Amino acid sequence: MQAALRVHAHYLDLASELSDLKTAEQFNLHDEFERAGLFALVNAGAAPGVTNMLVQDIAEHFDHLDHVKIRLLEHQDAERFEFLWSVQTTLDDIASPPLVIKKGKPQFVQPLCDEEWFEYPHPFGKHRAYNLYGDELATLPRYIQRCDIDCKSGGSDIEHAVLLSRIGLFSKEPVRINDRCSVSPYELLNHLKFEVPTPHQMKQYVKQGIVKDGFFVAVVCVQGKIKNRSVCLQKSVVFPSLRQALRLCPQTSSYIAYAAGTAAYAFLSPFERVIHAGVLPPEALTMQERRIVARVLRAKAVRITPFKEVRG
Question: Most CB contacts within 10 A, which of 1, 137, 225, 294?
Answer without folding.
Answer: 137
